[in-house]
Amino acid sequence: MTPFLRKLIGMNWLLVAAVVVISLAGVFFIQGATAHITDGEPYWQNHARFVGFGLLVFLAVSLMDYRWVRWIAIPLYVVSLILLALTLTKFGVLVSGATCWLKLPGLPAFQPSQIAITAGILLLSLFLSQFSGLHPFLKLCGTGIITLPPMLLIKLEKDNGMTLVWIPAVMAILWLSGLPKRWLTALILVGLTLLPLAICFGLDSYARARIVAFSDPAIDPQGAGYAINQSLIAIGSAGLNGKRMTDTTTQLELGLIPSDVAHTDYIFTTIAEQWGFLGGAAVIAAFGTLLLACVLTAHQARDPFGLLIVAGITGQIFFHTYQNIGMTIGLMPITGLPLPLVSSGGTFVLMLMFEFGLINSVWVHRNEQAESADKEFSLG
Prior knowledge:
Helix content: 55-70%
Number of domains: 1
Distance between the termini: 35 Å
Structural class: mainly alpha
Shape: globular
Strand content: under 5%
Strand order of the largest sheet: 1-2
């Protein structure tokens, strides 16, 4: 059996199945969320192209040894910082109150923060795996040096959702990097202590109003609480089987769920309204399967670098999923975070496929000796 065929057969097929099923379901759900929009190219066709190309990226990265990303971690991180800085110039595009998109001459608009989180996970995993013997305080200092610059730039874009994504990703990496639990506990306690100050002084009035609406959606039903109230009505009225795409009395068809976010931030609202409790439960189960495949891969990782990569990506995916679904059912404040592989998008889909390819590569190469790999890829 050739090495290529051995890798192909030895892939994490639970992960492959989850990625493929969720991606194809996303195309279907976007078609249902945008069927009433008649102007321009259908969103689902554009998303389908990104999914198709992304699956090729997923397959290619899965078959390559994940340790090669050690060589691109630093360049990718530097490039992502430059791109984030450019969003604060005339090349930045304002979307839903946040200047988080970048439009460079000759290129389609894309979201640098999605590239930055991937680069940050890779570089932090590289740092903590290469310098595992450092004192915990120095580890935390290095972690801050790596993560704070992109987080601050994303915060300056006023993209609070993507700023928050860094926290679970970094905490997952620190947890599995060997950082003593007392240091991790102290870090969490400091964060919780500073949380009220961050809400009062780190958020604008619009973001604070969303938090107030989260605590009591009835306090401003026509303002900050409007979106969550309409989402709860849409999901709560769907019943067991939903109203399907042909029903003209849905919140979506009546325009109460804005068409510009029905296929992005509020895609789960659309899914639950059209396909009911069973449809929503199926989506949650699919993501549970995806996260389970990631956890199993982390458990089988044969070197610290692969383990930390999987941990960081899993933390990122979990938070995206929990936040997106949670905000539509009143469990989390509203932030503009898409549902992985389901919400319409290009940059996010491609970066996710790259990340899932890395996770699959960790599984494919799990039986290789870590010692020989470390000698081969040692940074000296």
